[in-house]
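Let us work through a complete example step by step.
Step 1: write down the sequence.
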Amino acid sequence: MELTASRQLCYLAAAVADDRGWKAARTYVAMIKVYAPRVSLKIIDEAMQVHGAHGISQDCLLSEEYIHVRHVRFADGPDAVHLQTIAKEEVKREISPLAIKVSGTNENIAKYGMFEHSKWLSKL
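Step 2: predict the structure and record it as tokens.
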């Protein structure tokens, strides 16, 4: 399921890039750079568990693949950088009317005049 989710995220990034350009797909690309290697490592780790001691021996290529995929998480920038990009882009997004309706108004925040998205964003 996670592999399929990772593939769908790649497809979404490509579709957004084709329709609106790479700048618009930046958030999705950052998500891929975090999510895909994590999923790959999880799958390789589970395969190593299935194979037991053979999974970590030099006779099996799984340990080499694990090292390679782990390296990818650093080579393309640490996850923290990509997560920061995702967070910045998500904060910039306009809040949907449905989200406002479902969330309601937090009176502890409203008393400081930060209940409007644009006011909250300008205080960051």
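Step 3: interpret the result. The chain has a mean pLDDT of 85.
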